[in-house]
Design brief:
This protein is mostly beta strands. It has 2 domains: about 55 residues, no CATH class; about 290 residues, Neuraminidase, CATH 2.120.10.80. The chain has a 4-stranded antiparallel beta sheet with strand order 3-2-1-24, with no helix packed on it. A hairpin with a 3-residue loop joins strand 21 and strand 22. The longest helix has 11 residues.
């Protein structure tokens, strides 16, 4: 019997064409891929040319879906700085290792900053920007001003889809007066790598406390002012708009009259600026939320007690709900380690040990720096 000749189906051929020969609608493929870790998505570029066209660079729809889903399942990123290498390890909130890799660096890391899915490492003679999910490193072009370390911030501007490294440094004018100067390096998300340059935009009217991590929220960088460090007066919060590259002052809550304190932090909860006041004398935490930024109206949104007294907060992060998990606030303390405050049940639990679920080997967290909240990301790095 002769083989039956396959008849052409014009509708099916058109459908296959719209799927780029993969056999499934493009939107369905993107929806499936957006649910996977970024490192797996990058590996799928080798599957076929049609998949390569979707994934290199990542399709904008895929990137947006993946970003939205990863925002509900944040990870904890630990950094082990053992020059000439740096080891990055990400864990879920259950303590399971999700990703780990090691990178050679040219000099010891002095500072590090996080923003969404990217990290910025400030070394003695170089600045690196890294996407730990895709394991892509970009060495930022050198600037002689980088030798004068004062403070750094890494921010994201949603309106232009750009990341900006902001560096404040000290200069002395002709009269011998110290002034804080600001320079910026811009990274455009997507495309091919290219050389960029630093832009000096002028003097900063405010000092930036070096011991605090500035936070980026809705296209602005926020930090505590340094003017009242020794005066006992209430501190100020300052903002730097990444779009206009201008400064503004944000008043602290009126009911909060505390002086400069090592246990005051800034925090982003649900896209809103918050001030965290930790009273060491009785291990109590108050979190003030900016309800109306135009009128600078604050409300004390959360208030709870910790396990022990006289323990300062090393870092604090908000973990959104997702995958059956309640909203939680992650608090790092020097002795007790990592604590999770459940906003719904108002209960506190200690995080367990961190381990590799594949090998069962426990990770020695004593070698690592305190964690930062990290979001799995497909963002690529391009200098402008």
């Amino acid at each position: 019997m002769e083989p039956m000749e396959r008849k052409s189906n014009p509708h099916q051929d058109r459908h296959s064409g719209t799927t780029n020969g993969v056999g499934l609608p493009r939107d369905l493929i993107i929806d499936i891929l957006s649910r996977l870790p970024a490192k797996f998505i990058c590996q799928f570029r080798c599957v076929s040319k049609p998949w390569l066209s979707i994934l290199s660079p990542p399709d904008s729809l895929l990137q947006n879906l993946h970003r939205n889903r990863s925002n509900s399942t944040p990870l904890l990123m630990f950094s082990e700085n053992s020059y000439p290498h740096i080891c990055l390890s990400s864990f879920d909130t259950q303590g399971q290792l999700r990703n780990q890799f090691t990178k050679h660096i040219s000099s010891p890391v002095l500072k590090w900053r996080f923003c969404q899915g990217l990290m910025c490492f400030i070394c003695e003679d170089h600045v690196y920007v890294c996407n730990p999910s895709t394991q892509v490193f970009l060495q930022v072009p050198y600037s002689i001003k980088l030798r004068v370390l004062y403070n750094f911030a890494l921010g994201y501007l949603p309106s232009t889809n750009e990341y900006k490294i902001v560096h404040w440094f000290v200069e002395t004018d002709s009269n011998g007066v110290y002034q804080i100067v600001c320079q910026i390096f811009t990274l455009k998300e997507g495309g091919s790598n290219a050389q960029g340059s630093w832009r000096v935009i002028g003097n900063s009217p405010h000092f930036i406390i070096d011991s605090r991590f500035p936070i980026c929220l809705n296209g602005s960088i926020y930090w505590f002012g340094d003017e009242h460090r020794n005066s006992g007066d209430p501190m100020n919060i300052y903002a730097f708009d990444l779009a206009t590259e201008e400064y503004e002052t944000v008043l602290c809550p009126r009911a909060y009259s505390g002086p400069f304190d090592t246990c005051v932090r800034l925090l982003s909860i649900k896209g809103t600026l918050c001030l965290v006041d930790f009273k060491q004398c009785r291990s109590h935490v108050d979190i003030w939320m900016m309800k109306d930024q135009s009128n600078q109206i604050w409300v004390k949104e959360y208030s709870f007690d910790m396990f022990t007294k006289y323990r300062s907060i090393r870092n604090i992060h908000y973990i959104p709900s997702g995958d059956g998990r309640d909203e939680e606030i992650l608090i790092g303390q020097r002795k007790e380690g990592l604590l999770l405050y459940n906003i719904k049940t108002r209960s506190i639990r200690k995080m367990g040990k961190f381990s590799n679920e594949n090998t069962g080997i426990e990770i020695d967290m004593g070698r690592y720096l305190w964690p930062h909240l990290y979001f799995d990301s497909l963002d690529s790095l391009v200098a402008r």
